[in-house]
Amino acid sequence: MVGHDQRPAERLDPYSAVNTTIMGQPWIYGRDVPALAVNARDYLNVGVIETNRAGQRAYWLGIVAWSTIDRSALPSPAQPMRPGKVKFSWPDGSLELQPVPAGREALGASQPIFAGPQPEFTDAWYPLSAVQLSRLAQVPPESITLMREDGSAIVYAIWRIEPQAMDQFLEAIGFTPRGP
């Protein structure tokens, strides 16, 4: 998405009255699925938002799973797996997050955020502390692992990342990252 506007968007939800500042472009992670088809991939759109409910601010990380694979004829689920527990990995460490069960409703969003280009997608939302947001702001993770309930894992690698999107988001919300 080189050359696209990286400025964050502001959105006032018409139902919840929550004001949301949205990272301009999500980071995109992908994984090949050659067992199904050549050039078949599953993707994760990963982005950060800040919500403001009558002055109460909170940071959230959204992960949207989508695919280039038409799974309608397969015995497995028709849509990409809904993200659950995730692990972000860097050479110097990792960060694990659990999603909120209420999903988008927990942040007061009645419309999808960071949706993929395909009509079928699933999303999950993770509350972030200022320390966790600072960690993500340092450098995008090299990989993201979706942890399944059965203990197995699915690893996604960087596909497309615009670092300026995070920088401009942090500037828009007046956030100064903390050191390690």
The secondary-structure element order is EEEEEEEHEHEEH
Quickly give the structural class: mainly beta
Distance between the termini: 29 Å
In one word, what is the shape? globular
- Compute the number of strand runs: 10
Query: Which residues sit in consecutive blocks of at least 5 with pLDDT less than 50?
Result: none
Number of domains: 1
Strand percentage lies at 35-45%
> What does the radius of gyration come to?
16 Å
For the sheet with most strands, the description reads: 10 strands, antiparallel
Q: Tally the helices.
A: 3
Task: Give a description of the structure.
The two termini are 29 Å apart. It is built from three helices and ten strands; from the N terminus they run E-E-E-E-E-E-E-H-E-H-E-E-H. Strands 1, 2, 3, 4, 5, 6, 7, 8, 9 and 10 form a ten-stranded antiparallel β-sheet that branches. It has one domain. It is mainly beta and 180 residues long.
Q: What order do the helices and strands come in, and which of them pair?
A:
Elements: E1 9-12, E2 19-22, E3 27-32, E4 41-53, E5 56-67, E6 86-90, E7 93-97, H1 104-107, E8 121-128, H2 130-138, E9 143-147, E10 153-160, H3 163-173
Antiparallel strand pairs: 1-2, 2-4, 3-4, 3-10, 4-5, 5-8, 6-7, 6-9, 9-10
Keywords:
single chain; 180 residues; mainly beta; 10-stranded antiparallel sheet; 10 strands; 39% strand
